[in-house]
Amino acid sequence: MKVLVAYMSQTGNTKKVAEAIYDEITCEKEIKPIKEVQDIGAYDLSFLGFPTHGSGPDKKAREFLGRHCKDGRKVALFVTHGAAEHVPDVPEWMANFRGAVAGANIVGFFDCQGEISKGAKFVMRIHPDEKVRGWAKVETSKGQPDEARLEKARAFARDTLNRIV
Ligand SMILES: Cc1cc2nc3c(=O)[nH]c(=O)nc-3n(C[C@H](O)[C@H](O)[C@H](O)COP(=O)(O)O)c2cc1C
Questions:
Q1: How far apart are the first and last CA of the chain?
Q2: How far is the CA of 162 from the centre of ligand 1 (A)?
Q3: Which atom of ligand 1 is nearest to the CA of 10?
Q4: Is the pLDDT of residue 4 over 80?
Q5: Does the beta carbon of 96 lie inside 6 Å of ligand 1?
Q6: Band (109; pLDDT cuts 50, 70, 90)
Q7: Which of 41, 100, 106, 135 has its CA 20 to 30 A from that of 56?
Q8: Which of 34, 86, 96, 135 for mutating ligand 1's site (highest number of atoms within 8 Å of CB)?
Q9: What is the pLDDT confidence band of residue 102, given thresholds at 50, 70 and 90?
């Protein structure tokens, strides 16, 4: 069994979750940014992680998911977002990630809050989507993902692997 952990991360939050997941994998494994991934077909299972950009995956994330997630390949998605998990909009955003995976077999899904950095807030404040401009005001995200959230990510990795192996 060969497992890939691939992530997109501008400010490090999704990378932190990726590393927590990677640490839990006991079989053959690799971790890399999505831009270094050639073909997830070379792996038995791929954990793929992205930040939420404008209520779902951004263009690059969509392209990656569309290109690689086919032929019933086993993928487990993990996503970070600036809003807290209980915010009512979050399920719709996560559905947008699932929807970007056309032909793969989604064997696991995990999402958690990630700090909105100062730079990200600046970008979000001038974003064309009014809702994203609103999310730039979120003040609850500082320090996320914290240890409790990273532990949940580890549990997600263990659970997914137990079901697949
Ligand atoms: C352009 C842009 C758009 C974003 N849109 C959203 C959004 O719609 N909802 C949300 O909760 N967070 C949004 N965020 C915040 C990021 O999803 C969040 O901070 C994430 O953890 C960043 O992950 P990273 O550090 O791996 O890049 C946005 C950030 C940027 C830069």
A1: 8
A2: 30
A3: 27
A4: yes
A5: no
A6: very high
A7: 41
A8: 135
A9: confident
Structural domains in the chain (count)? 1
Check if 82 has its Cβ closer than 6 Å to any atom of ligand 1.
yes
**Residue 162 falls inside a structural domain:** no
- Burial level of 4, CB count in 10 A (0-12/13-18/19+)? buried
Residue 21 scores a pLDDT above 90: yes
Specify the pLDDT at position 138: 87
State if pTM tops 0.90.
yes
- CATH number of the domain at 77, please: 3.40.50.360
- Domain membership of residue 80 (yes or no) is yes
61 within domain boundaries: yes
Instruction: Inform me whether the pLDDT recorded for 11 exceeds 90.
Output: yes
| Residue in the block written with tokens 């399920």 | 91
In a domain, 163, yes or no: no
Expressed in angstroms and rounded, the spacing between residue 77 Cα and the centre of ligand 1 is 16
Q: Which helix (H) or strand (E) holds 110?
A: strand 105-113
Closest CA to 111 of 61, 145, 137, 72: 145
Ligand 1 pocket check for 149: Cβ under 6 Å: no
